[in-house]
Amino acid sequence: ANMRKEKIISSFDCKAMEYDKHAHIQKQVAARLAEFLPDIKTAFILEIGCGTGFLTEHLLKKYPDGIFQITDLSGK
Predict the structure, then answer these.
(1) To the nearest whole number, what is the mean pLDDT of the chain?
(2) Which residue has the higher pLDDT, 31 or 13?
(3) Which residue in 10, 11, 24, 68 is a FRET match for 40, CA 20 to 30 A apart?
(4) Alpha helix (H) ranges present in the chain?
Protein backbone atom coordinates (compact mmCIF):
# COMPACT_ATOMS: atom_id res chain seq x y z
CA ALA A 1 0.00 0.00 0.00
CA ASN A 2 2.85 2.40 0.83
CA MET A 3 4.55 1.72 -2.52
CA ARG A 4 1.32 2.52 -4.35
CA LYS A 5 1.01 5.80 -2.44
CA GLU A 6 4.57 6.71 -3.40
CA LYS A 7 3.78 6.05 -7.08
CA ILE A 8 0.75 8.32 -6.88
CA ILE A 9 2.77 11.08 -5.22
CA SER A 10 5.53 10.74 -7.82
CA SER A 11 3.00 10.92 -10.64
CA PHE A 12 1.41 14.08 -9.23
CA ASP A 13 4.80 15.65 -8.54
CA CYS A 14 5.91 15.11 -12.16
CA LYS A 15 2.93 17.05 -13.50
CA ALA A 16 2.52 19.65 -10.74
CA MET A 17 4.41 22.47 -12.44
CA GLU A 18 2.35 22.16 -15.66
CA TYR A 19 -1.01 21.27 -14.16
CA ASP A 20 -2.41 24.81 -13.87
CA LYS A 21 -1.94 25.36 -17.60
CA HIS A 22 -4.36 22.53 -18.34
CA ALA A 23 -6.79 22.82 -15.44
CA HIS A 24 -9.31 25.22 -16.97
CA ILE A 25 -12.34 23.16 -15.96
CA GLN A 26 -11.04 22.74 -12.41
CA LYS A 27 -10.66 26.51 -12.13
CA GLN A 28 -14.22 27.09 -13.33
CA VAL A 29 -15.61 24.41 -11.00
CA ALA A 30 -13.78 25.90 -8.00
CA ALA A 31 -15.16 29.37 -8.77
CA ARG A 32 -18.69 28.03 -9.18
CA LEU A 33 -18.48 25.92 -6.04
CA ALA A 34 -17.25 28.93 -4.08
CA GLU A 35 -20.47 30.75 -4.95
CA PHE A 36 -22.31 28.31 -2.68
CA LEU A 37 -20.10 28.83 0.37
CA PRO A 38 -22.16 29.85 3.39
CA ASP A 39 -21.45 32.97 5.41
CA ILE A 40 -19.71 31.80 8.57
CA LYS A 41 -18.03 34.16 11.00
CA THR A 42 -15.17 31.84 11.99
CA ALA A 43 -14.84 28.93 9.62
CA PHE A 44 -12.93 25.77 10.41
CA ILE A 45 -11.81 24.40 7.05
CA LEU A 46 -10.31 20.99 6.30
CA GLU A 47 -9.42 20.68 2.63
CA ILE A 48 -8.08 17.28 1.69
CA GLY A 49 -6.44 17.05 -1.72
CA CYS A 50 -6.19 20.76 -2.48
CA GLY A 51 -4.44 20.08 -5.79
CA THR A 52 -4.18 23.31 -7.76
CA GLY A 53 -5.28 25.43 -4.84
CA PHE A 54 -8.04 27.02 -6.91
CA LEU A 55 -10.69 26.30 -4.29
CA THR A 56 -8.23 27.14 -1.51
CA GLU A 57 -7.87 30.68 -2.91
CA HIS A 58 -11.64 31.17 -2.73
CA LEU A 59 -11.80 29.75 0.79
CA LEU A 60 -9.08 32.11 2.00
CA LYS A 61 -10.87 35.12 0.49
CA LYS A 62 -14.30 34.10 1.80
CA TYR A 63 -13.06 33.29 5.31
CA PRO A 64 -10.12 35.60 6.08
CA ASP A 65 -10.43 34.82 9.81
CA GLY A 66 -10.84 31.11 9.23
CA ILE A 67 -8.77 28.31 10.65
CA PHE A 68 -7.39 26.12 7.87
CA GLN A 69 -5.89 22.67 7.51
CA ILE A 70 -5.03 22.22 3.84
CA THR A 71 -3.34 19.07 2.56
CA ASP A 72 -2.36 17.29 -0.61
CA LEU A 73 -0.29 14.20 -1.37
CA SER A 74 1.98 16.18 -3.64
CA GLY A 75 4.08 18.77 -1.89
CA LYS A 76 4.74 20.45 -5.23
Answers:
(1) 87
(2) 31
(3) 24
(4) 2-22, 24-34, 54-62
> Positive or negative, the Cα torsion across 61, 28, 8, 19?
negative
Backbone angles phi, psi at 70, to 5 degrees: -120, 125
Q: Rounded distance, CA 62 to CA 36, Å?
A: 11
Whole-angstrom distance, CA of residue 63 vs CA of residue 38: 10
Torsions phi, psi of 47, nearest 5?
-115, 115
The pLDDT of residue 14 is: 72
Q: Where residue 16 falls among pLDDT bands split at 50, 70, 90?
A: low
Tell me the three state secondary structure of residue 71: strand
What backbone torsions phi and psi does residue 61 show, to the nearest 5 degrees?
-70, -40
Per DSSP, what are the bridge partners of residue 68?
A: 45
- The amino acid that residue 14 corresponds to is C
